[in-house]
Amino acid sequence: MKLWAQVTDPILHQNPVTLQILGICSALAVTTTLAAALTMSAALTAVIIAASGIISLIRTHLPSSIRLIVQIIIVASLVIVVDQFLQAFFYEMSQRLSVFVSLIATNCVVLGRTESFALHNRPLPAMADALGNGLGYSAVLIILGTMRELFGRGTIMDIPVLPTIEQGGWFEPMNLMLLAPSAFFLLGGLVWAIRSWRTEQVEKLEYKLAPAEEPRR
Amino acid sequence: MADLNPIRLWRQLLSQPNESRAKTLAVAFLVSTLCAVMVTAATVVLRPIQVQNRAMEQQTRLEGLLSEIPGLKDLLGSSEEMTLSTVVVDLRRARAAKDVTPETLESALADSRNWTPLTPQEDIANLGSRADLKQIYLLRGPGNEVGLVVLPVSGTGYGGPIEAMIAIGADMSRVAGLAVLSHNETPGLGGRISEPAWRQQFTDKSIRDSTGGVRLAVARGRATTEFEVDAITGATRTNNAITRMLQFWLGPNGYGPLLDAIGRGDF
Question: Does the beta-carbon distance from B19 to A74 stay under 8 Å?
Answer without folding.
Answer: no
